[in-house]
Structures are given as C-alpha cells and as structure tokens.
Amino acid sequence: MAKFRKKGSKGLPPISTASLPDIVFMLLFFFMVSTTMKEVSLKVRIQSPQATELAKLEKKSLVTYIYVGVPTHQYKALYGSEPRIQLNDQFATVGDIQSYIAQEREGMKEADRPKMTTSIKADFDCPMGIITDIKQALRKAQALKINYSAVQKSNY
After folding, report:
1. Is tRNA processing there in the keyword field (predicted)?
2. Which CATH class is domain 61-152?
C-alpha cells in the first residue's frame, strides 16, 4: 500500500518579491513628480507682520518674491545689521530690482506675463523707506501687481 502524507505540515509558501522593484520605482517616480523643491534659501530674517484680512494667491508659479529683512547671523559680519533686500539667493540693491523683474518676466510664458504678481516678504520691523524704494523700482519695471505677505492675526 502507498503512504499518504498530510499536506498541512509544510507551512505557507514564500511570498514572491518579483514585483517589489516595480512598486519601489513607481513610488519613487510618484514622489519625484509631485514634490516641489525649495527654491530659495533665506539669508535674511523675516518675522511676518500680522493681518486680519488675508487672501491666498491662486497660482504660485506667477509670483515673484522680494525678501527684505536683517541678514541672518552668519551674514551679519559681512552685510551688517541694517535691513537688506534679497532677490532669489543673492543680496541686492534697489537698482537690481528692475533687471530682476525683467529676468523673471522673460522666464514666464507670454500669456502669463500680464498676470505676474510681485510679493514683498518684509520683516515686521523693516523701515517703510525701503518698501517705498522697492515700490518705486517696481513701478519703473512695470510690475504693478504687488502683494504684501503677512500671517493671520490670532484673536487672542
């Protein structure tokens, strides 16, 4: 007579890992496409002013940022403790704003150029004279849509 063995004593078969590299690369590709990289490293300290009436900008790709504030600790020895203007990753003067706006405008699509908004992110203690000088330079560069960045004021 033949011997019969019980099939339950062998355990579970191993899980196939053949599709694992496909899944890993699919997730990697998804995060590469959907993640945006930080474009500018701030060299100035900005404590945003508080406001009660705020509106969110619709298309962030149409926004050009101008940062104004006191240089951070590592740049104070070189640039002092007076408020400075930062355009992209460089310190700049008011005279550099027109060429900066023209360069940013050139990088946009033709249809999006009239919709370009310039956002001024200034420190709370920044003197208004610098902001006025920036506004005058923006007016000369025909960048008339200006936004002032602020944070929501708490009710407490």
Report:
1. no
2. alpha beta
